[in-house]
Amino acid sequence: MQSHKFLVSKYLLIVAVLICAFVLLMGFESSENTYKPTRHTVTIFKMKFNPENLVVNKGDTVVWINKDFYQHDVTEMTSRKWTSKPFNQGESWSKVITGDIKYYCDLHKVMKGTITVAK
Amino acid sequence: MKTKARYKLTIICALVMATSGLMMAQDAPKLTDPEIASVAVVANQIDIDYGKVALKRSKNKEVTDFANRMIEDHSAVIDQAVALVTKLGVTPKDNAVSQSLMSQSKETLKKLNSVSKKDFDKTYIDNEVAYHEAVIGAVKNVLIPQAQNSELKDLLEAVLPALEAHLGHAIMAQSKISK
């Protein structure tokens, strides 16, 4: 009788451990699923991207705002895969970040910046 | 070889001529704000004029892209300067420095229009490097320190990074053209 009781409590303990493990796992998974992408701002002023180097999470959005009275653009640097096209003072352009980026202003080729996705 | 040496000498002369007006500005008597406004407008207009010649004479994309940028950016500076002097009720005043810049630019324009097509790109970009170096020196050492009105000073300070970016861009283009 006692050994039956012992077996039941052992069984209950295992079930409890499994439930805890499941809840913990669900908790981790749901925290990943509920990550809310953040908006980051890069200001273009006095012929510089500020900040020049930015670290973001995958899926975040970066918004470039032109505060210069000159036109600027944001262009992928390695092979010009994409470009914002020129935009004026007070205008902005945004991109969802899916990987590391090196970019520059194709109109003012000395202006450069990077976006790094946090590991 | 003789032609090459003469060509080099011509470029050196042109560069000396282009910069001497701005160097003169460093020894010039104190400029008033209306005179500084005039120098700023003239210096920007000169580079627009050089750019227009480049668009007419060059087929090199590096050169035409740079020339288009100079026309766009220096026009934007002139628009800002005109808006500011209008707001302040100031009339830009012609002076020895702006006159000297104008007369030297006429010589440079003559050269840019007469140099052979083959030599145009290098002549234009070499002049752009020298011109921006000289203008940066004048804005930093003469115009900004002498400007009295804070908004005029702010505008000149805002223009400086663009001139430095143009110089960097011109040096990049120069290295590609020289290859």
UniProtKB/TrEMBL annotation, chain A:
Superkingdom of source: Bacteria
Identification of the protein by name: Cupredoxin domain-containing protein
Bilayer-crossing regions: 7-28
InterPro entries cross-referenced by the UniProt entry: BlueCu_1, Cupredoxin, ET_Amicyanin
Species in which this protein is naturally found: Gelidibacter pelagius
Keywords assigned: Copper, Membrane, Metal-binding, Transmembrane, Transmembrane helix
A UniProt-annotated Pfam family: Copper-bind
UniProt entry tagged with the keyword Membrane: yes
Blue (type 1) copper domain: residues covered: 42-117
